[in-house]
Amino acid sequence: MFGYYFNLAMLSLKRNKVLTALMVLTIALGIGTSMTTLTVMHVLSGDPIPQKSAQLFRVRMNVFPDDAFKRGDRVPDNLTRRDAEALLHDARGDRQAAMSAGSMVVMSAQGDPLNVEARYTNADFFPMFDVPLRYGHAWSRGDDAGHAHVAVISGSLNEQLFGGADSVGKALLVGDQSLRIIGVLGDWDMNPRFYDLSNGQFGDSEDVFVPLSTALDMKLPTSGQTWCWGNNGNAHDANAPCIWLQYWAQLDTPAKAVAYRQYLQNYIALQQKAGRFTHSGQLELQDVMQWLDAKGVVPSDVRLQMWLALGFLGICLINTVGLLLAKFLRRGSELGVRRALGASRRSIFLQCLIEAGMVGMVGGVFGLVLAGLGVLLVRHQPTDYAAYIHMDLRMLLATFVLALSSSLLAGLLPAWRAMQLSPAIAIKSN
Amino acid sequence: MNMQIKPILIALRRHKAGTFLIALQIALTLAIVCNALFIIHQRLANLSERSGVDEANVFVIQNQWAGDRTQQQIDAQMQADVLALRQLPGVRDAAPISGGYPLRGGGWDNFVTMTPDQVKPTTDSAVYLGDEHLLDTLGLRLIAGRNFRSDEVHGMGTEQVIIPPVVIVSKALAERLFPDGSALGKSFYAMGSTPSTIIGIVDLLHRQGASQWDKAHAGQSLIWPARLDDVAGTFYVVRAKPGQLAAAMREAPKALYAQSRMRIIDPKDGIQDYAEIRHRVFDSDRGMAILMGIISAVLLAITAAGIVGLTSFWVGQRRKQIGVRRALGATRHDILSYFLTENLLIGIAGVAVGTVLAIGINLWMVTRFEMDRMSMAYVGVGVIVLLLLGQGSVLAPALRASRVSPVEATRSV
Asked: Are residues A235 and A167 in the same domain?
């Protein structure tokens, strides 16, 4: 049965090549643009650390003094050093890390200075974010406490400085000081860089990781957002009225998350009692996906493009519906003859749908090619996420599902109308 | 023409689905195309924003320090660096600039208040820091007051921001703070407890960024007389003599490295002229405008193809009726105008719905994408374009219809 309908559809499609080509092209364009933008959305809104995203929580709170506090404002992203150190000291999460982005100048073997991105954090960072190490190991909590002059470097910096050899134990020259390399990262890039979105949302991992306590001792420059509400000396002093540290906690079970939230509320209440402020404070404890959502990582242009492409697909479909309708009704006499010879309405309906589905399948194949070109085009755009856009198997399948379902959808109305043609009138009227 | 409307409407009632589909397609196309036009126009307006900088001759060097230096050493090095740059044969002037540079894509900005204890800021201003050569180097036009004197320029540590007592502001900021035009000699506060007195006003000085926030405070900038002694690095802005930009860009890093090797100027993007800077900051705008343009063109083409397809079908279906009308005395012109009028009626219904949709989409984008309200002119242009497109696409099938011979009325099957 299907074979017969398939042959009929082929004949019909061949009969009017221009119309067929127009329908295929319309669907291909609609599918191509939609899948390109959906792929970008899919990658940008993806989960960077699926195995742990529900256990990692960004800790934010508003403990500003009264004159800097506005109830309507968003809870600030970062913590003061005072609060971060207090939470680290309490260590109520399964793991916790305070951190800041930074940059430093290191010396290559040839004596050329090299500017590298850095992250200052504490020992829990590595197990928390599942950071793989190729050589050596990460530093310990003891190193944090001892302000040890140690560093973990990225694979690419290791390549650049040491030709990719095991550099554990070697010295990393930072200005006039030096750090001992104790570990080299394996492949690790989180995109989006959810752990700190203030310093480039997409990109490779930082090149040098140093204990926060050591970085403060060495007065290494930080980057990212620093926001102060008082005018006093060094923004990184222990009690400086400045927020600049990101804080993450790992809470393995929902129950622990509830308990941790309670703990933070108690902490804020204690600060209020200590006289830092009189308002009730604000608290935000968000897991990775909530945090990404709150920060709106997907650029608004990308969202706009997605809606535009979906609207475009909609118009393409309406166009296809119109053309299919014209096509089927024009063949009224042929369908009438089939009806008169005993074909049921259902089989007319099926026959028309199969024809529509074939247009959709061919359109989908071309659409996939167009989407491939589209993704290639996006990858050549000078955006920071361009390099990470790729089409995976899921999007490939989704393309075909979208192509087939939308063309069947487009075929529904015309097929319905064709099936309802009365055979007598259809034959007579021509 | 008028006489024909009623029979057309009656005939259309027999083709409800097709009529509806064409009208819907016209409506949706109108809704998307005029919003796209609006976005294109807005983005193109961004591209042509003036910066106030002598862009043909100015380039920027991103200089990062290597090795440990004290604040005093950095300050001395910066002064030595700009002296060396100014002595290059192809260079007219050079200055350090901190806080970013115009069109960099982001940088330092401060809230501005009229009194030190004011809670709600009056407005926001981009902050640039530079010496007495900065105005000439950027090519800014002083329209009132005077430039900084060299004794007003001091080194400033990053950990100790001391608000300078004098400031040069852009005309936009001056007018925002003192709408009566009396800004010169007045003072204001920029997130500090001490006031700054306006000693000069420049005609135009673009902010570092081009974001929504920057647009809301467009052109509002100030310059503090200071060298920011940042341990990380500084920008140098250099103005070449006319026609010597390329040579100056080649010589500048050599001159700096001759001063001291302990610095990093990225060979790839450490030195950029304003063509590159402008290109980079407006890249996404240009990309978006191009994309919107392509989508609009393709949409219009598809809609036109759809109209051609469906009208051709109708003409084919009605050959016999057309023959009867011709036999009864209708002229070719009558047949032609029948199909044109029919399409016009469908088109008018489509654009009516489309106008509502277009405004709806725009309002939705205002809330979702911080877009501005669209002027009705875009809808007007869209309506005209779509009606003309409809008439244009129906022309070929309608001409074919007008050539149907009266003899067809007599043929059966």
From this structure: yes
